[in-house]
Amino acid sequence: MAPSLVTGLARAPDLARRRVERALDETGLLCVTFLEGLRRTWDLRQWWGEFIEQCWFLARVTSLPVMLIAIPLGATISLQVGDIARQLGAQSGTGALLVAAMIQQVAPLASALLVSGVGGSAITSDMGARNIRDELAALEVMGINPVHRLVTPRLWAASTVSALLCSVVILAGVLGGYYFNVVQQGVSPGAFFDGATTLLQFSDLVVTLFKAWVFGFIAAAVACHMGMNCDYGPVGVGRAVNRAVVVTSIVVFAANYVITMIYQVLYPPRF
């Protein structure tokens, strides 16, 4: 066996250990950024103006993309479910399956991923630019905590807009599914909307909005952390944006699994 290969195999455990330690350090710093951003939430006068500005920015850049994604997404689900339901002779249940899928799973994930991909990338690049221009250090020199001044309003703005976008995703997805299921496949409108309420409970909508709210916090916390700790230079900012989107997607899917599992144990689905 070649000496270089032997050396590489010998160093593999050390490299794996270092990567695990680095990942744990990053997770700890991310949690610290999130908790520190929430610590001064009560001081509304310090971040209310920035909160309104960030809400308007996030809503402006995500509203159109979320509708362009939700309409074909609902149509695709409707076409697939409608085709299977027609073969089974249960076309009237297409509306129930479509609305249940949109509300329980699709809407919060779509809104969170759009907030992360569109708004979160902008937040990461903004915080990264402030970092490489030493604006964050300048705030600390002036006795201003940059987390309280910059991260706190972005956390609440992203969570608020994500919850609002969740409703838009549901509406747009149901409209897309209604068109293709009722107009294209010939299901009666009464059967479509009557079946839409058979599988749902009011708690489903509450948990969906809660998911979107939590996912917005996750997206903003990851974006701010990656931007505030990026490497100097444009390349460092670009890598931070890429890492923020990837990490947010992983954490959001993991959180969605945990919340869904707990909810289904507490409130079993209706059949």
UniProtKB/TrEMBL annotation:
One of its GO terms (molecular function) is phospholipid transporter activity. The keyword Magnesium does not apply. One of its GO terms (cellular component) is ATP-binding cassette (ABC) transporter complex. Keywords: Membrane, Transmembrane, Transmembrane helix. InterPro entries: Permease_MalE. It holds the Pfam family MlaE. The chain crosses the membrane at residues 155-180, 200-223, 244-266. This is ABC transporter permease. It comes from Actinomadura rubrobrunea. The lineage of its organism: Bacteria, Bacillati, Actinomycetota, Actinomycetes, Streptosporangiales.
